[in-house]
Amino acid sequence: MSIEHDAHAFSATPRPAPRPALLLAGACALLAACAALGDDQAGTDAMTLPPLEPGVSLELARHRAATLRDVAYELTLDVRDSTRAPGSVAITFARHTGASDLVLDFRGVELGAVRVDGQPAPDAQWREDHVVIPAAYFSAHNRADGATTSSGAPNNTPQDTGNGADWRQHRIELGFTAAIAPAGASIIRFDDPADRNARYLYTLLVPSDAQQLFPVFDQPDLKARFRWRITAPAGWRVLTNGVLEDTTTLPDGAVRWDFAPTEPISTYLAAFAAGPWTVVEGDERGGATPSSLYVRRSRAREADADTLLRINRDALEWLERYFGHPYPFAKMDLLLAPAFPFGGMEHVGAIFYNESRFIFRERPTLAERVGRAATIYHEVAHQWFGDLVTMRWFDDLWLKEGFATFMAAKLQQELHPESGAWKTFYLRTKPPAYSVDATSGTSPVWQELPSLDLAKSNYGPIVYNKAPAVLKQLEFLVGEDRFRAGVQQFLRRYAYGNATWQELLATIGEAADMDLTPFGEHYFLRAGMPIVETELRVEDGRIRELALVQRPARNLPGDRDGAWPGKVRVRLGYDEGDDVVFDVTFAGQRTVVEQAVGLPAPAVIFPNDGDYGYGLFLPDSASAAWMLEHAAGIGDDLRRAMAWGALWDLVREARLAPELYVERVLAALPNEADEQIAGVILNRALDALERYIPPGAAQERLQRMAERTLLARMDDASLGYGLRKAAQDAFLATARTPEAVAALEAFLDGRRTLAGEPLGRPSRWAAVRRLLALDAPGARSRLEAERERDTSPEAQRSAFIAGAAVPDAEAKAAYFARYLDDATLNEEWVTASLGAFNDPLHAELTLEYLRPALEKSEWIRDNRRIFFLPSWIAAFVGGQTSERALAEVDAFLAAHPELPVDIRKRILQARDELERTVRIRTR
To answer: What percent of the chain has pLDDT over 90?
Structure first.
C-alpha cells in the first residue's frame, strides 16, 4: 500500500515545543506498556524503552537495534514549492513482540496523520524530537491486515536478540512536511544567479539530519532499503540512491519520479537531488557500473565531465580488485553540488561533490588535480568502508573516514605513481593530525558518544588524518599482504551490516596471527601522540648507542601509561658510501637500536624513514644541522620532504629560529622542481613570516626578500606552470610592501602577467582581496569594478568573500551580523569568507569579535553543519597572534566551566596553537 503525497491528505501539526504534560503522559504510557509485557520481558534492559530526550541517545539506539530489524522506507516527496516539501513515508519492519512503545525520530516542520497496520493512531505523540506510538498498536489483536507471527532470522546486521522470541511484521505510515532553505534545512536550496535564479535542491543528512527530513529510525545500525518517489517541476532531473524505474507526467505538467529499492543502507547515506541539472552519461560498455554526472546548467561547459567519470570508473575498478568484492550497489552517479559545505559526501549510488572544488576556473596545478582525484578516491572507497560495512555507532566514525583516506592514498600510488602519493600523505594528510594531537584539546580516535546529536563534534583531523596515518602504521606492522587479507575478510564478514573497530582489528589480527590489543589501546583509545627523540652516542667515529626515546606530546588528564607500540624504519645517511636502513620495533619508552652499534657515525639519521610511524620524530642536533645545510639537495622526494618537515617541526618546537627557516626556504626555492614540496615549504615559510616573526627589521627584510623571490618565480618561463602558479598564489596572499601593492595593481590592469598569461578570475579576486586587506588606495573601487567585470556563476560568491577583507569597523560588524542572523546566507559562503574576515593584518580590528564568536559556539554546534564550528573557532582564534588575544580566550574558558566538553576541546585546540605562536614570537 502506498500513500500519495498530497499535503491535504494529512492533518498537519506544526512542530511543538516540549511540554511537561506530554512528558508525564509518555511516562504513564511507558509504565502501562511494561505492565502489559509482563515482568519477565519488561525487566530486560534491551526491551525497556529508555527515557526520551532530544536527539538519539545511545540507550535508545541500542533498544531499537535489539527490537527492530528488516526495515524499509517508501519515501514520497513533493518538491515543487520553494520553502516546503510535503511528503509521506511508509515504514515496514519486524518488531520484537516484547518491545515497548515505538519511537521514531523527527525534527521536521509538520507531522501529519499516523497509521499503524492500516489503522489510525490518533494518540501518537510528537515530543522531544520523537514520534512515540504506543505499544498497544502492535499487539496481535489490534492488527487489521491479518499478518501472522513469525520468527524469521535477522538480516546481516548484528541485531538479533539471540533469545528466539517471536517477531511480527508491521507497517506504519506518516505524513510530514520538511523545510527547504539555503541553510539550516535538510533540503538545501540554491538559486542560481547566473541562470535566472534556477532552483536546485539537494539533501545532506549526515550525521543525524535524516530526522529533519522525515520520521525515521535515525541510527547507523538500523540499515534499511529506501524506495524514493519524488514529484518535481517539468524540466527537472531527479537523482536518488536508487535506479530510476519510471517517470509519470501528472495532469498539471509536473513529473513523478519512481526509483527502485536500494540495498540495505544507513539513514545518513540516503539522499536525493532535484533541479534542471545537465546530465552527462558515463560509458557503461563491458558491464561497467552505470555512472552519470549531474551539474547545474550554467556550469556544464566548465565541468570536465569525461575526466571526472573516468577517475570515478578507474577508482571503482581498482578497489573491486583490492577488496576482492564487487561494487556492492546498483549504480554510482556523481553530482556537483553548488555551495556544498563539504568536499564530498559518499551517499550510496549518488556521491555529491563540492562544485567549486571540482570545476577549475583557471588552469589547475598538479596539487589541485591530485587533490580532486584524492577526493574522488576517498568517496568511492567509502562505498565499501562506510556504505557496505558501516560503523555501528558514530563513536567509530574513524572506521569509515580513516579507511577512505588511507585507501585514497593507496589508490593514487597505484594508479598514478608519478604523483608521489605517500609524499602527499606526509605533506598534507598527516600535519593536521599532528597539529591537533599536540594540543590539550585532542581526543582519541575512538570518541565516546552518548548521543547522536553530538556526532558533529567527532569530525575533524583525528578521524580524517590521524586514523589513516595509524592504518599506515598498522599495515607496516603486520605486512601488506596480511593487512589486505584481513580487510577482505572483514568486508565479507560484515557486508551490508555494521561493525566496530575491535572487530576490524580482530579480523586483521586473525589474518596476521598477531594480538593487536595493545596497538588498539594506544592508537584508538588513547588521546595524543608520542614525540620521539633521537639520541646518538659516538666513540672513535663509531656508534656506541642509538636510541629512540618516546614521551607524550602533552600530559593529558587520565592518560594511560606506557609507550606507544609500533614499527619504524631507521635510515643512517652517509655523505660518502651507501646508507644503512633497518626496521625497528618499539620496545618501550626507550628503544635501543641494536643493529646500529658499531657502525660508522652517520652524517644524518632519519628515525622514521618512509614515514610509517605516527608521531613527531625530532632529529638529533647533528642531523638537524645536516638537514639545514643539505635538505634542498636530497634526491629522494619523500626524504627531502621529510627533512624540510623535520626543520619545520623544530621551528614549531621553538628549537630553530623561524628567520633561519625562512631564509633557507627562499634560498632553496630556485632549485626545487617538485610542485608539492615547493608549495608546502613556501607556505610554511610565509606562515612563519606572518605569524612567528614579530614586526620589526627582520620581518621587513624577509618580507621584501620573499616578494622578490616570488615575483622572479612568477616571471620565470623556464619553470613549470605549477611552480609559477604556486608562487603567484603565495604572492597574492601575502604581498605587503608598497612595491608589492603596485605589482598587484599592475596584474589587475593587465600591465603584468604570469609569464605571459593574464590572471584568471580566481586570481583576480585574490588580488582584489589582498588590496582590500591592505586598505590600499582605490581598493574598494576595484572591488566594485571586479564585481561588474565578472559575469560568471561564481561572481557573487567571490565578491562576498573579498568583501569580508574590508578593514573597517562598519564592514566587519555587518559581516559578523550576517554570519549569525541571515537565514538566506549559505554556510559554505560563510566558511569561505572567514579567513578574509580574520586576516592577521586586521587582528586589532577583529579582536573585539573573538569573545562574541566564542560565545556563539554552542549555538553554532547545534544549528550548523559538521565542519562549520571548527572552521569558525579556528578562524577567529587563528587570526590573532597576541598575548592579549590569548588572555581573552583563557578568560572565556575560565568564565564558562560548564562549557560542553566537545566545544571546550575545539577551543583548546585553537587556543594551544595561539599559545604556540605567542611563545615563538616572544622566545
So the answer is: 87
Q: Which amino acid makes up residue 383?
A: Q
Q: Which residues contact 126 (CB under 8 A, 6 or more apart)?
A: 13, 15, 16, 106, 111, 132
Q: What is the predicted pLDDT for the residue at 755? A: 79
Q: Helical H runs in 774-842?
A: 779-789, 795-803, 809-821, 827-837
Report the alpha-carbon distance of residue 184 to residue 175 in Å, rounded.
Answer: 21
Angle value at C-alpha 849, between 848 and 855, nearest 5 degrees: 120
Quickly state the pLDDT bin for 151 (edges 50, 70, 90). very low
The ranges assigned to domains in the chain are: 7-275, 277-365, 385-523, 533-613+615-650, 838-923
Mean pLDDT within 168-177: 98
Report d(CA 735, CA 343) in Å as an integer: 29
- State which fold the 385-523 domain adopts: Neutral Protease; domain 2 (1.10.390)
Model confidence at 144, in pLDDT bands (50, 70, 90)?
low
Task: Name the CATH superfamily, with its identifier, for domain 7-275.
Answer: tricorn interacting facor f3 domain (2.60.40.1730)
pLDDT at 561: 81
Is beta strand 125-127 parallel, antiparallel or unpaired with respect to 130-133? antiparallel
**pLDDT at res. 9:** 31
CA distance 21 to 916: 53
User: What is the number of other CB atoms lying within 10 angstroms of the CB of residue 576?
Assistant: 6
d(CA 129, CA 212): 9
- Of the candidates 487, 492, 523, 524, which has an alpha carbon nearest to the alpha carbon of residue 507? 487
Enumerate residues 6+ apart whose C-beta is below 8 A from 594: none
Per the CB < 8 A criterion, the answer to whether 175 and 237 are in contact is no
pLDDT digits (tens, 9 = 90+) for 211-256: 999 999 999 999 999 999 999 999 999 999 999 999 999 999 999 9
Bridge partners, 119 (sequence order): 116
pLDDT digits (tens, 9 = 90+) for 527-567: 999 999 999 999 999 999 999 999 999 999 988 889 999 99
Place of cell 541539472: 277
Distance CA(175)–CA(703), nearest Å, equals: 63
Strand 84-96 relative to strand 237-240: parallel, antiparallel, unpaired?
unpaired
Round to whole Å and give the CA distance between 485 and 511. 6
Cell of 99: 518491545
Q: Where are the beta strands (DSSP E) in 27-83?
A: 68-78
Hey, what's the cell of 536?
A: 646518538
Give me the helices (H) in 116-244, please.
210-213
In 3D, which of 208, 220, 415, 254 has the Cα closest to residue 866? 208
**CATH code at 277-365:** 3.30.2010.30
pLDDT at 43 over 60: no
Query: In angstroms, what CA-CA distances link 565 with 473, 554, 593, 895?
Result: 10, 18, 15, 39
Measure the CA–CA gap between 319 and 411, rounded to whole angstroms: 8
CA 704 from centroid of its chain's CA atoms: 37
Contacts of 751 (CB under 8 A, 6+ apart): none
b/e string for 744-773 if b means 16 or more Cβ within 10 A? Answer: bbebbeeebebeeeebbbbbbbbbbbbbbb
Alpha helices for 637-737 (secondary structure H): 637-652, 658-668, 675-687, 697-714, 721-734
The pLDDT assigned to 41 comes to 35
DSSP bridge pairs for 539: 542
Which residue type occupies 35? Answer: A
Q: How far is CA 349 from the centre of its chain?
A: 19
Q: How confident is the model at residue 74 (pLDDT cuts 50, 70, 90)?
A: very high
Question: Checking phi first, is residue 146 left (phi over 0); if not, alpha (psi -120 to 50) or beta?
Answer: left
Instruction: Pick 27 or 279 by higher pLDDT.
Output: 279
d(Cα 590, Cα 545) in Å, to the nearest integer? 12
Residues 727-738 pLDDT 10s: 999 999 999 999
What would the mean pLDDT of 583-608 be, rounded to a whole number?
Answer: 97
